[in-house]
Amino acid sequence: MATTSSMTRAEEIYQRLRADILNGRHEPGSRLRVEALKEKYGASSGVLREALPRLVGQGLATFAPQQGFRVVTVSPERLEELTEARVFIETHLVRESVTAGTIEWESDLLAAHHHLARVPLVADTGEINEGWLNAHARFHRVLLEGCSNRQLRDIATQLREAAEVYRCWARTPTEHSNRDIAAEHKTICERAIERDVPGVVEALSRHINITTHLLLNDYGRREEEGKQDRGPSSP
Q: Helix 76-100 vs helix 150-164: angle between axes, to the nearest 10 degrees?
């Protein structure tokens, strides 16, 4: 039986691996070799073998026999599919959540938004702030918790986690500084608390789609710049 200490260590390593994947420190598609990770994170094989399957379960990594663990690969097509699935499921859930959510749910949502609004998006290193990532995930999770269907909520969380890896496409979070993401979250929260079902559905759909649009534009720019760096192809 795993000890409390080993479970705590596995949680710590999982959180560090997750943050490193989301910040692009492990490249999409790259191998997650246990021996290399042991050295990098100072963790035992047992702890890593508890943490790595959680990354697979969250859509941040894959596993194949004889090949081991890899960071999930990314592509514009996969991002578009994830976005379509997220909008479909999350808008259904938010309708149910806003309709059925209790006063306690309202309080939890306001608290989650209050926390998110006060955590900076960008860390001193210029990378996405890990505290912001956690607060952002909590806000979106609480938003849907007014719905009683836990299975659908779990699917929504998994899709959202899988989509998060695409943030590493952006060179720095400040490249999207023309977007007022704080105002987007504020609008979502206000419309949910007002029980404005059409309004919250529209705000949440727009929020998800804007992220995808910006990431795809950034990816397209990087691809074009890569072609220019390589020069004209041979006939």
A: 140
